[in-house]
Design brief:
This protein is an all-beta fold and about 130 residues long. The chain has a domain of about 80 residues. The chain is about 0% helix and about 20% strand. The protein contains no helices and seven strands. It has a three-stranded antiparallel β-sheet, with no helix packed on it. Strand 4 and strand 5 form a beta hairpin. The relative contact order is 0.21. This is Neprosin PEP catalytic domain-containing protein.
């Protein structure tokens, strides 16, 4: 928000952005009004000696639509609230447990705008 310096959060639901609220600038003063990167992320945390939970829907990306969890119609909003497509060539996949959870191709197909599948079942050890 150019008037307050707070971050403005939107949800692009059914291809129509809806305002979610403001993220106070004071929570991350080191950003100084600029987001150096945007993350589309999924997390699964658990104690070291327990079995891990499912990530996303509990299905692997190869199971695709109606099974695997996904991020779809991904957009990045600038300071004027204008939506932009992510740039596929600079998107970097990062996984710290590829033995447990998977990430589909980034991004997948123009037909679905920008979309990727992710996730995995419960039961990861360690």
């Amino acid at each position: 928000d150019p008037n307050t310096g707070n971050w403005v959060l939107y949800q692009d639901d059914l291809e129509r952005p809806s305002f979610l609220g403001h993220f106070p600038k004071d929570l991350c003063p080191e950003l100084n009004g600029v987001a150096p990167q945007v993350l589309f992320a999924g997390f699964a945390t658990y104690p070291r000696n327990d079995r891990g939970p499912a990530m996303g829907s509990g299905h692997f990306p190869v199971e695709g639509e109606r099974k695997a969890a996904y991020f779809k119609n991904m957009k990045i909003f600038d300071s004027n609230a204008s939506a932009h497509d992510p740039i596929p060539s600079i998107m970097v996949p990062l996984m710290n447990r590829p033995d447990c959870y998977k990430l589909g191709d980034i991004p997948l197909g123009v037909k679905d705008s920008y979309l990727f599948y992710y996730g995995g079942p419960e039961g990861c050890h360690g």
